[in-house]
Amino acid sequence: MGLILDPAISVIIPIYNEEKNIFNLYERLTGVMQTLGENYEFVFVNDGSRDNSFALIKTLADRDEKVKFINFSRNFGHQIAVSAGLDHTSGKAVVIIDADLQDPPELIIDLYRKMQEGFEVVYARRRKREGESFLKLLTAKYFYRILAKITSVEIPVDTGDFRIMSDKIVQVLRHMPERNKFLRGQISWAGFRQTYVEYDRAQRVEGETGYTYRKMIRFALDGITSFSDFPLKVATMMGFAVSGVAFMVMLYAMYVHFVTEATVPGWTSLILSILFLGGIQLISIGIIGEYISRISNNVRSRPLYIVNETNLAVQQNSGPQH
Ligand code: UDP
Ligand code: MG
Predict the structure, then answer these.
(1) Are strands 9-15 and 93-96 parallel, antiparallel or unpaired?
(2) Which of 40, 42, 193, 237 could bond 9 through an S-S bridge, CB–CB 3.0 to 4.6 Å?
(3) What is the CA(101)–ligand 2 centre distance, in A?
(4) Which regions form coiled coils (predicted)?
(5) Which residues contact 212 (CB under 8 A, 6 or more apart)?
(6) Is the shortest distance between the CB of 161 and ligand 1 below 6 Å?
(7) pLDDT tens digits for 76-92?
(8) What is the distance between the alpha carbons of residues 29 and 38, in angstroms, rounded to a whole number?
């Protein structure tokens, strides 16, 4: 095989049950790449779709040599699918985009142009968000604002993973061994010159969201535990506060016993303090447990994902070993 020039742009597309969006997305992305007139590749990561998505991706790959794919052995989750893409791209610039067309492919032109001005990362910041449930909008809004408050890393608010970044940043990400991925935080953490362009986020065109509330909660906890020790500090602070109150109650109890010598039935205060202390203790243990489960997850160091099939040059059975 002769030497193949590395593409200028790699586009990573995580896929989970997107059979109705794939062709449409492919057409629009191809149009965008033709406008930019640069050499490119698409890396489709099929994250254990239960529908016909993978067959469609293979059809595209047969037709177009720019279409690369990685097929997971099962559903590993969105962040891991994008990470697998990042492990296998070779572009000078790498784009991460959702398959459901909520991230307009045409915006890549703006992201790319902005990058040419000398930025390592240009992320797409949502000005408006359409067709999402009230609860999702509300939780997302507060999640990003609280996260911003309790972490020292500046993680931009109202931003998903839709962005473009240079191969420098991709190198940094490849060498971050943590397994509970929160890519948008990790990218901010990397530093360099980062900026954003704004856009209005559209509705999902076809299909249903792959992010259940369960996955969203896990993702939020990953973000918080990876970038903040604040919850652990809350546990400590609650411990101090409760101890302080308990000490006062102790003084009061001794006063009642020795000075007033009034016999107090005391059931109410007893049951209240037991419940209260029990609650505080369980919360604190739970918070510690969240961190510990992530430590054990990292110590286990299983491969991050299992590749079933790929047309990429680097054949791998598992994720990179760090
Ligand atoms: N996705 C994935 N694995 C999953 C869930 C989602 O690869 O377990 C992909 C999905 O196909 C889409 C992107 O991640 O390209 C964003 O997912 P989705 O649109 O379902 O999330 P939402 O926009 O509702 O937050
Ligand atoms: Mg979506």
Answers:
(1) parallel
(2) 40
(3) 8
(4) none
(5) none
(6) no
(7) 999 999 999 999 999 99
(8) 13
